[in-house]
Amino acid sequence: MSKWSSAEVPSQSGRVAIVTGANTGIGFHTAAVLAQRGATVVLAVRDVEKGKRAADRIAATAPGAHLVVQRLDLTSLDSVRQAATELRDGLDHVDLLINNAGVMYTPKLTTQDGFELQFGTNHLGHFAFTGHLLDRLLATPGSRVVTVSSMAHNIRAKIHFDDLQLTRSYDRIGAYGQSKLANLMFTYELQRRLAARGRPTLAVAAHPGVSMTELVRNSPLPLRIGSKLLGGLLSQPADQGALPTLRAAVDPEALGGQYYGPDGFRELRGAPVVVRSSRQSHDTDQQVRLWAESERLTGVTFPV
After folding, report:
1. What is the total count of domains within the chain?
2. Alpha carbon distances (Å) from 259 to 60, 104, 127, 132
3. What is the phi/psi pair of residue 87, to 5°?
4. What is the pLDDT of residue 233?
5. Bridge partner residues of 95 (DSSP)
6. How confident is the model at residue 1 (pLDDT cuts 50, 70, 90)?
7. What is the mean pLDDT of residues 182-196?
8. Would residue 304 count as lying in a domain?
């Protein structure tokens, strides 16, 4: 069988997709393909001017595309709430919510609400955004929530329930791993809740392998050097890295709770297929505990 590519994306005419972090990297390419297939695409971005430039680039490849730029700062729960309110007012339905935006390997910093930056942005921001929009998805047949994780969910990764904000000891690689592990636990717990209530909305996860995007700018120096020297062998361009997200979002055979990633050596690159996540990510007790903590920290509860 031929390997899955963007050519497999069916018509998205009449569908509405919200893509966080759509101004660059895999988010940009995800948004571009969906727009080219006819979807109304909301580019939910922190920098509106960058978002507008990205929308112009997409429009040049997709004449007549309906593109909306929405300000969304995942480091601020107020911004998350405002963005969701504006989208709820402006959209009568949502078919796809793609939680793609993120930060990686940052120095020890906090969000506007005092959360560790990587956990607060990558997990809590998206948790709150999804919670605010979920009723729109639940009312839309065939809707999906796709959350982008990473192979890093298994690298120095642990949910530090005794110190979620890593105030006592900070390791930027471990902090990123915690946030990406949280993305998977969120997806699995959300899918379990949806299925338990007979809701047809699917929660699916994906990871891009090693893709050359702006995220690498905060990587430790040896990793940045290695990326430059071996980039062509161990990584793939951002448009290829977007394929697992796209397949998770549109493949009619996809199931809730699945996890898509590249099919190549150690999932570094390749065509998108269903892959396995760590045993830890499937710990249901930790998933439930993380969900409860996320609700407490964000003040957002879900209608499931």
Report:
1. 1
2. 32, 20, 18, 23
3. -70, -40
4. 61
5. none
6. low
7. 98
8. no
* Cβ partners under 8 Å of residue 198, min gap 6: none
What are 240's two structure tokens?
A: 């290829």
Paired with 273 in beta bridges are: 261
Segment 82-133, tens digit of pLDDT? 999 999 999 999 999 999 999 999 999 999 999 999 999 999 999 999 999 9
Q: Mind telling me the catalytic residues?
A: 176
Q: How far is CA 264 from the centre of its chain?
A: 21
What residues contact 74, with CB distance under 8 A and at least 6 apart? 20, 46, 80, 101, 111, 120, 121, 122, 125, 126, 129
Helix or strand or coil: residue 236?
strand
How far, in Å, CA of 238 to CA of 49, rounded? 21
- Other Cβ atoms within 10 Å of 232 Cβ, number: 11
Q: Which residues pair with 43 in a beta bridge?
A: 19, 69
List, as one string, the DSSP characters of 136-183. Answer: HHHTSTT-EEEEE--GGGGSS----TT-TT--S---HHHHHHHHHHHH
- What distance in Å separates the CA atoms of residue 30 and residue 25, rounded to the nearest whole number? 9
236 belongs to a structural domain = no
Cα(22)–Cα(95) distance, rounded to whole angstroms?
17
Domain harbouring 113, CATH code: 3.40.50.720
What digits encode the pLDDT tens for the residues 10-56? 999 999 999 999 999 999 999 999 999 999 999 999 999 999 999 99
**For 208-233, what is each residue's pLDDT tens digit?**
999 865 555 555 555 544 445 445 56
Domain range enclosing 268 = 11-228+243-298
- Confirm whether 3 is domain-assigned: no
What does pTM read for this prediction? 0.94
Question: How much is the pLDDT for 210?
Answer: 93
Tell whether 215 is covered by a domain.
Answer: yes
* Residue 155 pLDDT level (bands cut at 50, 70, 90): very high
